[in-house]
Every structure is written in structure tokens, then in C-alpha cells.
Amino acid sequence: MKYLTRFHNLVRSPAQVFQIKQLGTTYQTEILAGITTFITMAYTLVVTPRILSHGIFLQHPGDLFDELVMATAIVSAVATALISLLTNYPFALAPGMGLNSLFAFSVVLELKLNWHLALTAVLLQGLLLIALSMSGIRDRLINAIPLSLKQATVAGIGFFMAYIAMSGNPESPTLGAGLIVASAATKTTLGSLSNPVTLSLFCQSGKTQLVKPFWRLNFRFLTINFSYC
Question: Which residue range(s) make up the domain with 185?
């Protein structure tokens, strides 16, 4: 009943429900903040499906990529809407990178668990997390984690996402940029900077431009090419 009343008031007076004046903000500020948050988090619409597509597929990895993009968008939109409408917190929610990797690479690929069963386990995990949150145990667990470990986790996730974006096959739009490629000797190594598709990532316009091989260019020309291509 409480949430139904809140929804009714939201339709009649959004400013009152979200306490726009009380919090010293404006519609313009909130809209700009929302757009900024979306741009910051938009990477998950590509990264999350790319990770999950290694474990969730019908015939071969990647054949459900489009469906995973849609699922990621719907889940993120619904979760963000619920937390804003029910709690009035300016938080945007989306699938977590760590859990995605654990699901696809460890649970499905390493443990050979059927992805249908693995998704059921994710559902049970969500229900358990709700129970822990409502009981207050979750708050105690979070407060017990040292601040340095929390900060290191955030930095690690950032490096992990950068690694995913720069690795893979540049010829496929869903398999990364190719700045980092697999290597039998060192596991990973620098990709081919003579590949036009890889070099196009440095272009502000996003257009592919044919250039000479990296080792034939002096540093000044290389800088100009990357800045203005």
C-alpha cells in the first residue's frame, strides 16, 4: 500500500516525491546527472553480453549475443527504476562484472555446469541476498570489509574491463579491439598496430583509416595520425 501511494504521488507531483526542492537540486541537474551516469555505465551493454556469451549459447558461443544485450538493458532499466522509485536513491544498477565472469568462465566452462542450472543458482543467490539485506546481516558484512580492499576491488574491476575491451579479435565487432592478443609464451602480448581496424580505435571520429605500419612511422607523425584521423 505504501508503494502504491508513492506511485500515485509520483504521477501527480514528481518534484514532491523525489524532494527536488528539499535537496537543493533542479530538474536540469537531475537529467544531466542521469545522462552522465548512463554514458558512464553504457559499457555494460556490450561487456556483459560478451562475457556471458561464452557460457550462454545454443549452438556456438556468441549466437545469443543480441538476446543478452536486450536482457542486460531490461534488467538494468528495471533495477534502476525500482531503486529510484522505492528508495529515492540516485543509484544506477546493472549486472556485476565479477559475477558475470564467475558464471561464464568458472561455473559453466570450468565446472562444466549446464548454463540453465547455473542461472537457477543465480536466482537462488539473489533470493538469499534479499534475505540477508532485510535481516541486516549484509550491512554487517560490508562494514567488516577494510576500506583499502573496497578501493582495490574498484580499481581491479576497472583494469579488468580495460583488458577485455583491448583484447580479442578486431575483425569481429563482439570480440574486442585486438590491442592485446593471446601469446603462447607470455599468455598475452601486444597486438598488431598495423591493423587498420585496431588503429581506428584511436580516432576521435571512429572512422577506420589506412596507415603505414607502426615501425615505419616516427613518433610525431604517429601522434598526429592518432589525433586527427
Answer: 167-229
Question: Cell 556471458 identifies what position?
Answer: 52
Total number of domains in the chain: 1
Residue (of 208, 192, 175, 213) closest to 46 by Cα position? 175
Q: Are the C-beta atoms of 68 and 53 separated by less than 8 Å? A: yes
Find, among 64, 77, 56, the residue nearest to 120 by Cα.
56
Condensed to tens digits (0 to 9), the pLDDT of residues 138-169 reads 889 889 999 999 899 989 988 887 887 777 66
Stretch 170-178: mean pLDDT: 58
Q: Where are the alpha helices (DSSP H) in the chain?
A: 2-12, 14-17, 27-41, 44-52, 65-87, 97-101, 115-135, 137-144, 147-166, 196-199, 219-228
The verdict on residue 210 lying in a domain is yes
Is 158 within a domain? no
- 91 belongs to a structural domain: no
Amino acid at 72: T
84-130 pLDDT tens trace? 888 888 889 998 877 888 899 999 999 999 999 999 998 998 899 88
Q: 174 is written with which cell numbers?
A: 563482439
Whether 229 maps to a domain, the answer reads: yes
